[in-house]
Amino acid sequence: MILTGVSAGLAGLAFTFANQLTSKMSGIVQIHAHMEMSMNSVERVQEYSEIAQEPPAIVEEYRPPNYWPREGKIEFKNLSIRYDKNLPLVLRNVSFTVYPREKVGIVGRTGAGKSTLSLALFRILPFDSGTIEIDSIDISKIGLKDLRSNLTVIAQDATLFEGEYIYLIHLGTIRSNLDATDQHGDADIWQALRQSHFMDTLQKHDAKDPLIGQTLSLEDRVEENGSNFSQGQRNILCLARALLRKSKIIFLDEATASVDRDTDAKIQETIRSQFTEGTVLTIAHRLRYLRIY
Fold first, then answer.
1. What is the DSSP letter of 282?
2. What is the pLDDT of residue 74?
3. What is the CA radius of gyration of the chain?
4. Confidence at residue 97, expressed as pLDDT on a 0 to 100 scale
5. CA 164 to CA 180: how far, in whole Å?
6. How many CB atoms lie within 10 A of CB 19?
7. pLDDT classification of 293: cutoffs 50, 70, 90
């Protein structure tokens, strides 16, 4: 049988170009994959550019008076909130009044909307309807900085800040986490640490009292998310931050859930003794956890 077809030269040329096409196609696929990964940054920028902006930090027409709030009266008036316009209401027509220096417990099952109240109070979530007034001032009209700088929250998931390096100086320290705006002296900061019983959570060789010579320093470094402290210690540092600010309104969201029983009892005593002039709202899952009153 005699086979007829292309010449040996053309067959060799075809095989040569076929091999080149295979390698070129592999390169094209790699370039396309690299381009697709690089476009993630473009998609991220586009997504961030379309995020709804928060209200302004300061609204000059509605600045609250100095030392606001003076009394700490909170009024929720027919407040309704949803997490997204396509989702059902989490809070529906909630109305109640917390009078100055009252200590109120908020109890409910998971998903009942307890923490949503704190998000509403700090205007992290927009209101679907209704208002919240603090000392007869509608918080939806004032700037976010004026609002949030005058309230204090101690969350279950405590937040500490690592900071950054400037001229080889690390800014994420215990001092900067307790007094970010540098408004308090060392004596006040040490007093807040003692009142919150933070020193009791340290090992003996690290927990000397500052009055007699301490190994703990206010310039000790805080790692990212406070990873060099336990969950309970992070909560106690947030409590010390609240003690230092002396706010008239304090929101506690399961603040002692991550500490042992003895430390919990000490913290509860601190809350009872140090927040007597403030309005305190405490979130708990069970009534027996509300022992601070």
1. E
2. 92
3. 29
4. 92
5. 13
6. 10
7. very low
Q: What is the DSSP letter of 72?
A: -
Half-sphere exposure of 27 (CA within 13 A, CB side): 6
Q: Do 248 and 279 contact (CB within 8 A), yes or no? A: yes
pTM: 0.71
H-helix segments, the chain: 8-49, 114-121, 144-148, 174-178, 186-195, 231-245, 261-274
At residue 75, the pLDDT reads: 93
Between strands 249-253 and 279-284, the pairing is parallel
Q: What is the pLDDT of residues 267-291, one digit of tens each?
A: 777 788 888 888 888 887 766 555 5
For each of the domains in the chain, give its residue range(s) and CATH number, in order of start.
65-150 (3.40.50.300), 165-289 (3.40.50.300)
How many helices and strands in the chain, by DSSP H and E?
Answer: 7, 10
pLDDT tens-digit readout, 257-272 = 666 777 777 777 778 8
Please name the residue that has the structure tokens 């320290």.
173
CA–CA separation, 195 vs 267, rounded Å? 8
